[in-house]
């Protein structure tokens, strides 16, 4: 028994030793493998770092090359810009000098038939102060632009176009300023301008109503005229919207006004077109109703004419029968004497009737009116 236990102890000790040896072998093997892996990983990391550094060096080289190229291009472009600026400044200076010379002296070209150009000209206008100065200025701007006038020629043309009370404005302008366009325009604006009447035009526009017999076209034209005077500085879309509203408010016929307002038009032309269409349709409908009523009246009139003819025939028959009855009545004896009035040709009843007739006539006749003095 003891021997068996000792053997078991020995066997266990041997097993422990074998396990420790095996653990030591495994540990040493694992340590060696881990060392190898670490060495391999470190070598890979070093290689990757070397590759990264090389890539960074290449990127730096490319970046430097690109920056050098950009600097070269910028230098070239800046040089070209400076050259162009200098040339443009020189050209602008030459043009300004030539323009000042052209404004100070008249332009005279030699009459060369090969270079002659016949430009169409528009006759200048006249202004007497009775018409709108704004309209005259607009027309004059068109004429001057078409004729190609400079400011000096414009000033002389305005001076030559003034008539009547408008020409009296020149008396307040110094002689050396009669060729200055701005001075002449300011004097005309101060004397005949209507910019200070803006509030008056706006009030007139608000109170404008269609007159009896006035057409919608005339009304729209007047509204457009007042809009140009009252809201000259407003944007075009705002002016169009306001003109449409004022036009609808000014329409005299309530049905046309209501129908046009419901359309919610955005400009004056659309409002005018729709109101004219509605007015024409309304007129056509009214005409057709009148035609139908005339046809109905014709039918009833025929019936009335037939009844009237029938009545006339009945009256004619009665009149004829009355006349025939008088003819058949026996004539009285002219030798008969009335015992009441002692006259011949009638009897007492006739005398009584003759006596009553004046009294009845007096009872029913109205007194004559007195003459007023």
UniProtKB/TrEMBL annotation:
Q: Please indicate if the UniProt record lists Coiled coil as a keyword.
A: yes
Q: Where is this region: Disordered?
A: 1-31
Sorted alphabetically, which keywords does the UniProt record give? Answer: Coiled coil
* Coiled-coil segments on the chain, per record: 45-105
Name the UniProt record assigns to this protein: CCHC-type domain-containing protein
- Native organism is Araneus ventricosus
């Amino acid at each position: 028994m003891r021997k068996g236990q000792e053997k078991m102890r020995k066997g266990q000790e041997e097993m422990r030793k074998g396990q420790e040896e095996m653990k030591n072998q495994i540990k040493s093997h694992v340590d060696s493998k881990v060392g190898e892996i670490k060495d391999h990983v470190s070598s890979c990391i070093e290689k990757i770092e070397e590759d990264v550094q090389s890539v960074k060096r290449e990127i730096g080289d490319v970046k430097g090359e690109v920056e050098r190229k950009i600097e070269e291009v910028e230098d070239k472009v800046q040089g070209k810009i400076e050259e162009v600026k200098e040339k443009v400044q020189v050209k602008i200076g030459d043009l300004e000098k030539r323009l000042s010379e052209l404004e100070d002296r008249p332009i005279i070209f030699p009459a060369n038939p090969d270079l002659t150009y016949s430009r169409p000209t528009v006759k200048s206008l006249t202004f007497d102060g009775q018409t709108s100065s704004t309209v005259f200025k607009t027309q004059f701007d068109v004429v001057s632009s078409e004729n190609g006038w400079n400011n000096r020629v414009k000033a002389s043309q305005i001076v030559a176009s003034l008539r009547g009370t408008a020409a009296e404005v020149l008396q307040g302008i110094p002689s050396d300023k009669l060729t200055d366009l701005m001075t002449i325009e300011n004097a005309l604006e101060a004397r005949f301008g209507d910019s200070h009447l803006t509030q008056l035009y706006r009030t007139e526009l608000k109170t404008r109503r269609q007159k009896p017999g006035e057409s919608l076209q005339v009304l729209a034209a007047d509204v457009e005229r007042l809009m140009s005077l009252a809201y000259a500085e407003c944007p075009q879309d705002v002016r169009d919207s306001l003109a449409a509203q004022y036009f609808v408010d000014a329409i005299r016929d309530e049905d046309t006004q209501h129908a046009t307002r419901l359309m919610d038009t955005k400009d004056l032309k659309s409002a005018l077109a729709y109101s004219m269409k509605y007015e024409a349709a309304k007129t056509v409908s009214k005409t057709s109703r009148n035609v139908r009523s005339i046809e109905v009246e014709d039918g009833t009139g025929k019936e009335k004419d037939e009844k009237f003819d029938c009545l006339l025939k009945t009256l004619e028959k009665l009149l004829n029968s009355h006349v025939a009855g008088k003819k058949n009545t026996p004539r009285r004896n002219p030798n008969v004497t009335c015992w009441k009035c002692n006259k011949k040709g009638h009897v007492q009843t006739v005398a009584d009737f003759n006596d009553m007739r004046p009294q009845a006539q007096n009872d029913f006749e109205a007194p004559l009116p007195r003459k007023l003095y």
